[in-house]
Amino acid sequence: FGYNMLVFIPFKFLMKIKSKYDVSIVPTFLLLDERKAIVDRVEGTEASKLTLSVRKLLSMPLKTASSPSEGNDEGKVEEQQPKQKSEEETLNAKLHALINSAPMMMFMKGSPTEPKCGFSRQCVEILKTNSIPFHSFDILDPAQQHVRKGLKTYSDWPTYPQIYANGELVGGLDILKEMVEDESTSLAEQLGINKEQDISIEERLTALLSRSKLMLFMKGLPSAPKCGFSRQIVELLGEAKFDAFDILTDDEVRQGLKKLSDWPTYPQLYLDGELIGGLDIVQEMVESGEFSEMIEGL
Q1: Do residues 111 and 138 make contact, with C-beta atoms less than 8 angstroms apart?
Q2: 281-289 contact pairs (CB < 8 A, 24+)
């Protein structure tokens, strides 16, 4: 957004500004469009209100000319409408982020500790036996059925589990077994995986935060929350389109996200990779109507 600018003005030097804009509280945030007209103002330090106002300003279309004079249609301003991504493009972006969220990624039924089909269990056993570090995604999660269906088309592979190495499809259990049977080279070498170096936590968090525009880190899953706060925030989100990650399944993510966001508790809700807050903040925004405005169009 090259036409947006944030200007900091020391209050004590600008009494004219104080009078012109009727500033009576410090800090006061004035949000102006390209014509220097006030779009919104936020008084005080309420971060949620400021975040919402800034998002509104950034979403406003850029004017390409001055306002036309009355009765003159030739000078009418054409607004640049933001291009909306199709559902398919949005899903493909999410699938790409998931596939590349770790060097070795398996989309399976269940989890490595609790596989829910024999094929998934055998794949887990093979990777663990060969000391291959990997991450997984449970395609049985009721909230992730769009991933389960979409990945089949995205990768042109109709069954699960699906195994990816460095962002490329390896295949399923049969392919993995064939690779193990090839004794001329190790499984890790065939996969192109360095067993000594897994993806950094920073890279993992970046990939997780980009999985969805609205991303919830919670205890459990939306279909089965494992704490009261997580259950309440899922109920508050209602029909909003969001993705979720169970921080109880990965302590590295659980601890790393606390440091990244400087937010010590869960659940944590993010919009476009930026922290909104926890249950209390989301509850306040929902009650005030700010939340529905913020996620409008998702």
Answers
A1: yes
A2: 281/48, 282/233, 282/236, 282/237, 283/232, 283/236, 284/48, 285/48, 285/52, 286/236
The type of residue at 239 is E
Residue with the two structure tokens 């949620």: 48
Q: Do 163 and 136 form a contact (C-beta atoms < 8 A)?
A: no
- pLDDT, position 197: 52
pTM assigned to the model: 0.48
Is pLDDT at 75 greater than 60 in this prediction? no
pLDDT in tens, 184-233: 889 999 999 876 555 678 888 888 888 788 999 999 888 889 999 999 99
Radius of gyration of the chain from Cα atoms? 24
On the question of a cis peptide bond just before residue 133, with omega within 30 degrees of 0, the verdict is no
Question: What average pLDDT is seen over the chain?
Answer: 81
